[in-house]
């Protein structure tokens, strides 16, 4: 799960936040961190008064998963990176500090967490990372029965804390659903409109092709669909919709897909009282007009992110995505000028990459759903 930071990496899909020039703050590793153990054991300082991610005394928040504080930059970093996953299905960064180059991976098959050497050596004890590496079947600090390991103490009700951490953050306007413990996770039930995401979800391990666990209902036309239909087919955990892939003859203006998605989404939503996780995603293949996008943001009550398919420096394809899946707003980076996207939308008519359809660009965005739904070993389909 080592993050690929190489800017010259050949081809990648990246997520940027539209309408924000905010730079992600990345504090350099602090030498003071070595002093955490000394401050707690020698100076009798409470660990809640120290940032367990960097050793700073400027504590702003409590760490949601483990006892200890967090300074402001480390809190922002955690918010932006905690729900990012790599293709292998593991989290991209350390679940304590949300950084780290080399990561220890939990070998509990249902766990996706990683830990950096520095966190483990600083908080659990010097030399721990080496011992963990030498172990054949290591289970992590959130999965181990014992809540305390050195200075690292798992919080009680850390899932509630994680939800509260995101809900308190003004940068994450939509309420987050509490993550689901492994033994309670059920196969996901999906309603897929105008574009079929079965292949993507099967490849990611959310649907099982053999036994048919997990279900997906695909509709390419919803003109005559009424509330009763959706209630009969449902309940659903994820509603996906998109503007149609290029070169697919479409019978309606692009805005129609947005309105129909919003209409059907209302039918599929669980009753407001429930705390059952319910996710949705609408993807625009750069077909909506600027006015349509403003309407989408108002209807869906969240700003879109732009996901780029880049090859070296060149942007080959892009989509706008509105969703309530955690981490959709993560990975802030440079903005793409609207003119460039407009140009891309035109050029794309000729480009081959664009013909793949919008779902291929957003595949990775489904990975945080691993915290909520049953996971099947994906069969050989590559991501
Ligand atoms: Zn810090
Ligand atoms: Zn770490
Ligand atoms: Zn684990």
From TrEMBL:
The keyword Zinc applies. GO terms for biological process: autosome genomic imprinting; chorionic trophoblast cell differentiation; epigenetic programing of female pronucleus; male meiosis I; methylation; negative regulation of DNA methylation-dependent heterochromatin formation; negative regulation of DNA-templated transcription; negative regulation of gene expression via chromosomal CpG island methylation. It holds the Pfam family ADD_DNMT3. One of its GO terms (molecular function) is enzyme activator activity. Keywords: Metal-binding, Nucleus, Zinc, Zinc-finger. Residues 39-171 form the PHD-type domain. It comes from Myotis lucifugus. PANTHER family: DNA (CYTOSINE-5)-METHYLTRANSFERASE 3-LIKE, DNA CYTOSINE-5- -METHYLTRANSFERASE 3-RELATED. It comes from the Eukaryota. Its main location: nucleus. This is DNA methyltransferase 3 like. It is found in: Nucleus. One of its GO terms (cellular component) is cytoplasm.
């Amino acid at each position: 799960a080592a993050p690929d930071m190489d800017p010259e990496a050949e081809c990648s899909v990246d997520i940027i936040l539209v309408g924000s020039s905010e730079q992600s703050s990345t504090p350099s590793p602090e030498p003071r961190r070595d002093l955490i153990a000394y401050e707690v054991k020698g100076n009798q300082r409470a660990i809640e008064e120290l940032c367990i991610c960097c050793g700073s005394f400027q504590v702003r928040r409590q760490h949601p998963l483990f006892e200890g504080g967090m300074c402001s930059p480390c809190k922002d970093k955690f918010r932006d990176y905690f729900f990012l996953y790599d293709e292998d299905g593991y989290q991209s960064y350390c679940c304590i500090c949300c950084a780290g180059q080399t990561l220890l991976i939990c070998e509990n098959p249902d766990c996706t967490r990683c830990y950096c050497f520095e966190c483990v050596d600083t908080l659990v004890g010097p030399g721990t990372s080496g011992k963990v590496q030498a172990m054949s079947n290591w289970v992590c600090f959130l999965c181990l029965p014992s809540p305390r390991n050195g200075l690292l103490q798992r919080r009680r009700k850390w899932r509630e804390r994680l939800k509260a951490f995101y809900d308190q953050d003004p940068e994450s306007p939509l309420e987050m659903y509490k993550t689901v413990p492994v033994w309670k996770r059920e196969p996901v039930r999906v309603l897929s409109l105008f574009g079929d995401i079965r292949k993507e979800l099967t490849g990611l391990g959310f649907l099982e092709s053999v036994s048919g666990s997990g279900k997906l209902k695909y509709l390419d036309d919803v003109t005559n669909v009424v509330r009763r239909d959706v209630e009969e087919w449902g309940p659903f955990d994820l509603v996906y919709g998109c503007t149609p892939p290029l070169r697919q003859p479409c019978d309606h203006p692009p805005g129609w897909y947005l309105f129909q998605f919003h209409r059907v989404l209302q039918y599929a939503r669980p009753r407001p009282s429930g705390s059952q996780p319910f996710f949705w995603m609408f993807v625009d293949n750069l077909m909506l007009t600027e006015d349509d996008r403003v309407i989408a943001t108002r209807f869906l009550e969240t700003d879109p992110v732009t996901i780029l398919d880049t090859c070296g420096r060149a942007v080959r394809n892009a989509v706008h995505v509105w969703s309530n899946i955690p981490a959709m707003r993560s990975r802030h980076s440079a903005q793409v000028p609207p003119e460039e996207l407009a140009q891309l939308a035109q050029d794309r008519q000729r480009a081959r990459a664009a013909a793949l359809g919008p779902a291929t660009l957003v595949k990775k965005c489904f990975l945080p759903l691993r915290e909520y739904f049953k996971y099947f070993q994906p069969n050989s389909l590559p991501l």
